[in-house]
Amino acid sequence: MTPEELLGIADRIIAQSEPGEQIEIAVSAGETTTVRVYDGSVESFTAASNQAIGIRVIAKGRQGFASAGTLDEAVLRQTLSDARDNASFAEVDPNAGLAETDGVAPVEIDLWRDSDLSNEDKIEMALELERRVLGADKRISGVRTSSYGDSVGSFALASTNGIRATTRATSAGIGIQALAKDGERTQTGYAGDGARHPGELDLEAVAERAVSQAVDLIGATKPTTRKVDLVFDQRLASTLLGMIAGTLTGDRINKKRSPFVDRVGEEIASSLLTMTDDPTNPRSLGADTHDGEGLACRPNNLITQGTLDGYLYDAYHGRRAGVPSTGSAVRGTRGLPSP
Asked: CA-based angle 170:316:23, to the nearest 5?
């Protein structure tokens, strides 16, 4: 289904809102393919289509949510009824409410790539990745799994607050785990790649990284306990920075579950570190034009030359903190938004 068709479904439900009631509709449809191969043969192949809707109702400070995995009209009516029923049993929350339009214009980015890759071609890509790893180094003793996956999907969101947003996107990815023999031990190395189009995936680079990670560990031993200088490779460095970024979200801040609570303006890192959350960067597979509540995505500075600039908020947690949303809500269609 097209984003416009999904938005039409959302608009029909919005039209059924009752006085004093806020309604938000998130609706999606798409297709996915997953291939796993092992020892030159297909281990599993899955191709599936999916549809989903999530309905949020807020009335008298009470929030109710319900979702379904089909867009059948009878199910849509029942899902709206269930969301209203759930709201009637919820606790009153003075911060409950939908996102309000804030005048920020969305950045136009193209997240869609047409592809005519056949299922046979997708299987061959996973097989070729396995062959490249097995033939790259005599110390490679095997491959645990080689995989290919892709997805195409459309999404629409509408609310009684006047928010209407649509998007569509494609993605593809490959991954492999290489095994290297080290005496009686087996060392492992994993690598993967993601892109908007299968043709943009770099099999050679993925094979090289997986092999390198496995064979570079041959002969490795645990060091004795002592203070040392650490040098992180790119993968581990990004993992570490991702953990830090995960402590800068509004839900963690409001619950005082972050080491960075009440530290905006403080120097918390090396002056060499600047960190920006930018969902408008088209190079990222996480890029989008709108966040999970329909607000325009935008860059948000988190750390500038070691100094903490701020946190990421959705509408609810921003309201609790007394600040506006930073356009940073994320969600699955069948779940509630969070920063």
From this structure: 70
